[in-house]
Amino acid sequence: METEAAIRQNLQEDEKRLLEEIQLDIPLVVHPFKYIGKNCGMSEKSVIEKLRSFSEQGMIRELSAIFNASGLGYKSTLIAVKAGEDIVNRTVERINSHPGVSHNYLRNNEYNIWFTMTIKRSLSFDSELKKLFYGIQPVKYIILPAIETFKIGVQFPFTGKQPVRTNHAFFQPEKAVTLSEPDKRLVLKLQEGLPVVKTPWEKIAENLQIDEETLFLRIRRLKEAGVIKRISAVLRHRKLGFRANGMACFRVPDNRIAAAGRCLAKYREVSHCYQRKTYPDWQYALFAMVHKNKEEECLSLIEEMALKIECRDFLVLFSEKEFKKERVKYFVG
Question: Of the residues 103, 168, 272, 291, which is catalytic?
Answer without folding.
Answer: 103
